[in-house]
Write a structure and sequence with these properties.
108 residues, 2 domains, 6 helices
Length: 108
């Protein structure tokens, strides 16, 4: 497998001096499947915007990262998605979706 997207993000955050965000990224905080957040990508975009406003010297580089995030450059890879789908958490999510679908069908 190629470099994990959480590590890819952490590395580019370090390159622009966003060390606290990089540490969070390394733990999966902004990752599609590892994050405790409901919308980690939007949180990343928001945090990058705030960081850009607070750092005029590196604003341009940070905004470039923000655009990469908007473009999906840090989204989970296919391999990461498949690994999550095969995990217990992923399987449980599928079971819940199927059960919810069945309940909705019965209520029609």
């Amino acid at each position: 497998m190629s470099e994990h997207t959480k590590d890819k993000l952490a590395a580019v955050l370090r390159e622009v001096g966003l060390h606290e965000m990089a540490e969070r990224a390394a733990t999966g905080y902004y990752h599609d499947f590892l994050s405790p957040l409901d919308l980690p990508e939007l949180t990343l975009i928001d945090h990058l915007g705030a960081a850009a406003r607070a750092s005029p010297a590196t604003e341009k580089a940070i905004l470039a990262l923000q655009m990469r995030g908007i473009d999906g450059d840090f989204d989970a890879s296919t391999e990461e998605s498949e690994a999550w789908a095969a995990s217990e958490e992923g399987q449980d999510a599928y079971r819940q979706l199927i059960a919810r679908g069945r309940r909705n069908d019965q209520n029609r």
